[in-house]
From TrEMBL:
InterPro entries: Rieske_2Fe-2S, Rieske_2Fe-2S_sf, Ring_hydroxy_dOase_asu_C_dom, Rng_hydr_dOase-A. Coiled coil: none annotated. The keyword Iron-sulfur applies. Keywords: 2Fe-2S, Iron, Iron-sulfur, Metal-binding, Oxidoreductase. CDD domains: RHO_alpha_C_AntDO-like, Rieske_RO_Alpha_AntDO. This is Rieske 2Fe-2S domain-containing protein. Belongs to the bacterial ring-hydroxylating dioxygenase alpha subunit family. The keyword Metal-binding applies. It comes from the Bacteria. Residues 44-123 form the Rieske domain.
Amino acid sequence: MAKYGQNADAIAALVREAEVHRDVYVDPEIFELEMEHLFPNSWIYVGHASQLGKPGDFITANIGRQPVLASRHTDGSIHVFYNRCPHKGVKIASEPCGNTGKFFRCPYHAWSFKTDGSLLAIPLKKGYEGTGFGDTQANEGLSKVRNVVIYRDFIFARLSDDGVSFEDYFGESLSTIDNMVDRSPEGKLAVQATPIRYMHTCNWKMLVENQTDTCHPMVAHESSAGTAVKVWKREQGDSTETPMAVQLYGPFMSPYEFYEQSGIRIWPNGHGHTGVANSIHSNYSDIEGYLGQMVAAYGEERAHEILGEVRHNTVYFPNIMVKGAVQILRNFIPIAVDRTLVESWVYRLVGAPDKLYERALMYNRFINAPTSIVGHDDLEMYERAQEGLKSNGNQWVNLRRLYENHEEQDVTAVINGTSERQMRNQFHAWSKFMTMDMDKRVEAAE
């Protein structure tokens, strides 16, 4: 029997001001409600326009349980559809990406559709004459996702017909995407490689929370990043140049004081970022020629302003993280209550030196890959948490660090860099977008 159903009050009660109930991580019913409510009510990242470089290019994705398909049409426009044939429901495309040519063709009965989704042809079409087919939804072709926004080539979609507009949903948080794109002298990013993909045996929200958890790096990563730093100090001899690998690993061992002073900025609707005043990306060595390109493109003042913004991790609620300083986006895709597929994408700064792309690729492999020495530390913590939360000793997760009574919700603020307020901010948004349409559905059922 359903424990929560469509009961908005019961769902909201799982989130207190500074605690969340373990069911948000371990209850399969809550997970299915997230798929039904949270993800359709939120703006979800689908892909990047550079993946659709020419007509016929397509990518596939999922928004909650809903498979979607994005394609580039012959006129250059981008369209997002539900990935199912209007005939028998067969998925039109099962590959992550590809080029379909001039049309999509269903592999079951050969119904075909233009790359804007409109119906192109049906075999034995005479069989539909006089049947009223022209008045059916199938005659309209692939069902379109109506709420789609392409912001600086990042494609976002919201499945729900009602909800918060794109502008109101993201607000000032889009400044992180702006900064990442502006780091290109041409103001453009490009996807040129497939992402690193791997499965984590934990709830998707654990990975999202970890992106703004600054009290774990010096503890969880001591044996990996800490060891790498110790080995370099022992072996460096007279060398005055720090290898790129050590530059990437070293900051993970920064003390609590560093993270406290770096700060966290929170925004409405669950978004926020670490690294306001400083970050682990602040002290990378300069890339020859890059600053000159940026000054030529933007002018001296603007170039230094762009490059001086070195935010660490920006969480875009509900499930992506953007690391603008090294052009990485991580997509935490929910598969089951205790399974999360991670996609870690790297973008090239168009027009910038190759060394910057090399550094981003190296960071992705050193830190985010399943073969990295750092990523395993986090995975072990997630798995231990997923197991530990089954314990009946305490059914609440404590998020009280630097909690202030009666914190304002849906505000913009800069706070202590070791605060758990961004996690509280995320769960306030979780409750909001989980329940915003539940009352309407209950009323409709009655």
